[in-house]
Amino acid sequence: MPIYEFRCKHCDHRFQKLCSLGENGENIACPSCKADNPIRVMSGFTLNNPGALAGSRGDSCRGCTSSNCDGCRS
Ligand SMILES: [Zn+2]
Question: How remote is the CA of residue 66 from the centroid of ligand 1, in Å?
């Protein structure tokens, strides 16, 4: 099952939750303020996408100009 990220409309709290496919947050409550119907946020995080994960990690060597830095290729 995929992990979805949600953002609470009420308090702006962001959290992640394991959901069945197609679930849109109707049955989920914000863990912070208990408001329901959080907004589902699409993140590169989800599944089967190591490229997206590596891309998001690229932040750590943003300023790197070395030609042999593997992390800078993507
Ligand atoms: Zn909330």
Answer: 43
d(CA 38, CA 4): 11
Q: Is residue 70 part of a domain?
A: no
- What is the CA(29)–ligand 1 centre distance, in A? 8
Whole domain around residue 21: which residue ranges?
A: 1-43
- In the reported structure, the alpha carbon of residue 12 is separated from the centroid of ligand 1 by a whole-number distance in angstroms of 6
Q: Where are the alpha helices (DSSP H) in 1-74?
A: 50-57
Say if 23 falls within a structural domain. Answer: yes
Tell whether 71 is covered by a domain: no
Per-residue pLDDT of the chain (74 residues), as tens digits, is: 778 889 999 999 999 988 776 666 678 899 999 999 899 887 655 555 455 444 444 445 555 655 556 656 55
